Amino acid sequence: MRASGSETKDDAVTHILSSWKGKVIVATGGVAVASGLVIGGMVATSGNAAPPKTATPVSADNASAAAMPPFRLPFPCGQKWRGDTTASSAHTKYEIDFNQGRDLSNVDEGRTVVAAAAGTVIRSTRHVNQSGYGNHVVVQHSGGYQSWYAHLKYRSVKVGQKVKSGTKIGAVGRTTRPSNSGMTAHLHYEVRKNGQYPPVAAYFSGKRFPYPQPRPGVTLTACKGGSTPPPASPVAKICGKGFKQIDSRALGKAGRVYLGYNKANKNNCVITVKGKGKKVKMSAFLQPKGGKAKTDTGNFTQYAGPVKVAAPGKCVKWGGYIGSTKWYSGWSHCG
């Protein structure tokens, strides 16, 4: 929040794929999300392995970029914006206010705000009296993460809409409750885990926002100053025709596990991909609810999988590992 008044809280690779048979695959980012929400982290195994174990929860202070979708600054590529965290007594340490022009003025009003990562819009509304957020949008991402954008002048998206990283969702504004009409234009931004308040630490282009930041804040460049569009996913190439990526999760710096879906035959597909190099023990895992788990495990040069399972109207568990780095979902992407 800016100037007078206070806010209350309303709710608590680079993909290069030259030849998937023997050239190079490098996976370091890119996420698209289906309408189902990702639920909790579970370690799942199959066959005669030990029963599933609950993954260690990630605290707000210890959340890492590897565990999150690839968030970017919520503004058009190449633009520079200042972010501060101590402009309002209502802030917690992980809420950020952004300005591009002069602070405590309205020169930024109407400037474009974009989705910080791919996901599904789960809220697009204006609160008149319930909170100080005014026009605000909430986008659900993979892993249970949500990005919040408040005080917008207007909203460009509706509930249920799928957005890509960089999709316009509205414009910087100063909408809030009538009692705080003196607030100046800025974007209020948060990242929440599983919809819970307070927010968790935000990351932009893989780097943690440098908390705390008093006014005038730290200057960041959207997309690290570049405007290169996100590269193509390896899902269609490896899983086959008709498959599209609906989710992915980084396995540290080792690579990434991908979940694909084919609307025509209702098949899910999981692949675990790393950069070209020596053979490493890898695995891809997929299980439909009420069905048997399938895995592809072995020593591979580039990827494990594809593992395919038909699961119309069912939730799935999916994941994999590269070496000692592993990640497995709970029941997610239902239907």
Number of strands: 26
Give the CA-based shape.
elongated
Strand content: 35-45%
Strand count, sense and closure of the main sheet? 9 strands, antiparallel
Instruction: Indicate the CATH class of the largest domain.
Output: Mainly Beta
CATH-level-4 superfamily name of the largest domain: Glucose Permease (Domain IIA)
Determine the N-to-C terminus distance. 39 Å
Description:
The protein has about 325 residues and is mainly beta. It has two domains: about 80-220, Glucose Permease (Domain IIA) (Distorted Sandwich), CATH 2.70.70.10; about 235-330, Immunoglobulin-like (Sandwich), CATH 2.60.40. The chain is about 0% helix and about 40% strand. The chain contains one helix and 26 strands. The strands form seven sheets. Strands 5, 6, 8, 9, 10, 12, 14, 15 and 18 form a nine-stranded antiparallel β-sheet that branches. Strands 19-20-21-24 form a four-stranded antiparallel β-sheet. It has a four-stranded antiparallel β-sheet with strand order 23-22-25-26, with no helix packed on it. Strand 14 and strand 15 (about 195-200) form a beta hairpin. The two termini are about 40 Å apart. Mean pLDDT is about 80; it is low at about 5-65 and about 225-230.
Show the helix and strand layout.
Blueprint: E1 16-17, E2 25-26, E3 42-43, E4 53-54, E5 80-84, E6 96-99, E7 112-114, E8 119-126, E9 135-140, E10 145-152, E11 154-155, E12 162-163, E13 168-171, E14 187-193, E15 196-200, E16 203-204, E17 207-208, E18 218-221, H1 235-239, E19 244-251, E20 255-262, E21 267-274, E22 280-288, E23 294-300, E24 303-310, E25 316-322, E26 325-328
Antiparallel strand pairs: 1-2, 3-4, 5-6, 5-18, 6-14, 7-13, 8-9, 8-12, 9-10, 10-14, 11-13, 14-15, 16-17, 19-20, 20-21, 21-24, 22-23, 22-25, 25-26
